C-alpha cells in the first residue's frame, strides 16, 4: 500500500468514525427497518412449517373420519343391496321404485331397476366415474352424468357411487352440538367436475363416526338438497343406516326416502361390470 493509499484509507475511516459518532440516530433509523424485515421473514419461515404440519394433521383426521363414516354406510368389499325409493310431492301420487345394486369398491357398480314392471330391465353401469345406461329398446348404452336425476330427489351418483372417499377432499369445518351429541362437520370438495356434487357438508357423530346429515351443493354454491341418515340396524354384517331421507331444498314438500335391505357381502368378478355382461342382464 502506497503512502497516498494509506492516507486515503485513514481519511475514509476518520470520516466514517466522525459520522457515526455525530449521527448515531441516522444509522439506528436505517438499521431498524432492516431488523423488522429480518424478524418478519424469520417468523414467516418458522410459521409456515408449523402451519403445514397442523393442516396435514387436520387433513388426516378429516380423511380418517370420512373413511370410517363411509364404512358404516356401505362395506369396503363387494356387496349387493336392494333399495326402495319412495318419492312424494305436493298434489302428486306417491311414486315407488326399487333397485338392486351390485357394487365393488367405489369404482364398479351396477344398478338394476326391478320395479315398476314397465322399467324393469333398465340398468346403469358405472366404471370409475364413467356411467352408462342400458335400455332394452336401445341397441347401445348411452352415456349419462352422475349428477343427472334418476328419480325424485335422487341423482344417478347417489346410487352408483357408494362412498364419498375418493370423490371429495375432506376438511374439518367445525364442531356442532345437536341433541346433546357432538358432531364433526366435514366440508367435502369435489376432486373434479365429474363427481355428483360440487360440495357436500357432512355431519359425522364424533363418538361413533355414524353419519347424521349431508347437505349437497351445486357448482353455483346453491344448496340443492339435504339428506338425513336414520334407522341404524344390522345390515350386511354391521349396524348401518337403513333409511336415507332426501329433502329438496329448492321446492318445499318434495322428498325421496331410500330404504336399504337384503344387503349381502359378495365376491363380484370384474366381468359383470362390462357392457357385454350388461346386455345379458337385461334379457
Biggest sheet features = 13 strands, antiparallel
What is the helix tally? 4
Overall 3D shape = globular
Mean pLDDT: 85
**Low-confidence spans: pLDDT under 50, at least 5 residues?**
1-29
Order of helices and strands: HHEEEEEEEEHEEEEEEEH
Distance between the termini: 104 Å
Number of strands: 15
Q: Strand share of the residues?
A: 35-45%
Structural class: alpha+beta
Strand order of the largest sheet: 6-5-4-3-2-1-15-14-13-12-11-10-9
Give the C-alpha Rg: 31 Å
- The helicity comes to 25-40%
Topology:
Layout lengths: L2 H20 L1 H50 L5 E10 L6 E10 L3 E8 L7 E5 L2 E5 L7 E3 L4 E3 L2 E2 H5 L7 E11 L2 E10 L8 E7 L5 E7 L5 E13 L2 E11 L6 E11 L9 H7 L2
Antiparallel strand pairs: 1-2, 1-15, 2-3, 3-4, 4-5, 5-6, 7-8, 9-10, 10-11, 11-12, 12-13, 13-14, 14-15
Overview of this structure, please?
With 283 residues, this protein is of the alpha+beta class. The protein has four helices and 15 strands. The chain has helices spanning 3-22, 24-73, 156-160, 275-281, and strands at 79-88, 95-104, 108-115, 123-127, 130-134, 142-144, 149-151, 154-155, 168-178, 181-190, 199-205, 211-217, 223-235, 238-248, 255-265. The strands form two sheets. The protein has a 13-stranded antiparallel β-sheet with strand order 6-5-4-3-2-1-15-14-13-12-11-10-9. The chain has a two-stranded antiparallel sheet with strand order 7-8. A hairpin with a 2-residue loop joins β4 and β5. The model is unreliable at 1-29 (pLDDT under 50).
